[in-house]
Design brief:
Helix content: 25-40%
CATH superfamily of one domain: P-loop containing nucleotide triphosphate hydrolases
Shape: globular
Number of strands: 12
Largest sheet: 6 strands, mixed
Radius of gyration: 18 Å
Length: 259
């Protein structure tokens, strides 16, 4: 099986005519975990939404290929079915659909007709992943994210990740609002996915998540593009010194773009 590969080339994205991403470039291979950090308003969440095809975000130029195919020509559901996953910063609440029903339907949507996952196999897998994430079994029958705390929603996003087993995952501020215990559990779930058939992009403000999920590469994003890349040590320096040293080094002036 070919390892997954996501390549973003010279991507420009606008919202209501205002350019947010400007000449953005990034490559992610299977087996790699990348982290993007940056001040508020640099376009990090715009990147995540644009990759998944949110209609609010207009691709004005550039190219994105996923396993050699043109990602930008795909509909949202096609992007998901081909193996791209987004853990959203603010997961939606959906009444009337249980977590278990949602997950089984999502898994079967990526399988050929006649090859649907059996109920017993699904239940065994769901029980295994929920145990690893220290989730009460009652979560399976609760409506999707309805009445969930912020931490429960984030844990539920990682449950979806582990059940769907995508090729490339984009985790948009998956650590936001988590206490240290929940952060460790969420990190355990992501680390359990690591392997040659899985690539991951973590969008985060804080180095603390990267204490538990060690990235292969760390990228600093400012003014809608990546301005600096390095290893895990780069995140540590950002935590200690902030972003001013990068601005000074590169001659970047403060400019708010978009969240």
């Amino acid at each position: 099986m070919t390892a997954p590969y996501l390549k973003i080339e010279n991507l420009h994205v606008a919202i209501e005519g205002k350019e947010i991403l400007k000449d953005f470039n990034l490559e992610i291979n299977g087996g790699e975990i990348h982290a993007i950090m940056g001040p508020n308003g640099t376009g990090k969440s715009t990147l995540a939404s644009a990759l998944m095809g949110h209609p609010k975000y207009e691709i004005t130029s550039g190219k994105v290929t996923f396993n050699g195919e043109d990602l930008l020509e795909m509909e949202v559901d096609e992007r998901a079915q081909t193996g791209l996953f987004l853990a959203m910063q603010y997961p939606s609440e959906i009444s009337g659909i249980t977590n278990a029903d949602f997950l089984r339907s999502a898994i079967n949507s990526r399988r050929e007709e006649g090859d649907e996952i059996s109920l017993m196999k699904f239940i065994r897998k769901l029980d295994e992943k929920m145990e690893l994430l220290e989730m009460d079994q009652s979560f399976a029958q609760r409506y999707l994210n309805e009445g969930f705390s912020g931490g429960e929603k984030k844990r539920n996003e990682i449950l979806q990740l582990m059940m769907l087993e995508p090729k490339i995952a984009v985790l948009d501020e998956i650590d936001s609002g988590l206490d240290i215990d929940a952060l460790k559990v969420v990190s355990k779930g992501v680390n359990a996915m690591r392997g040659d058939e899985f690539g991951c992009l973590i969008i985060t403000h804080y180095q603390r998540l990267l204490n538990y999920i060690t990235p292969d590469k760390v990228h600093v994003m400012m003014q809608g593009r990546i301005v600096k890349s390095g290893g895990a040590e780069l995140a540590e320096r950002l935590e200690a010194e902030g972003y001013d040293w990068i601005k000074d080094e590169l001659g970047i002036e403060d400019e708010k773009v978009e969240a």
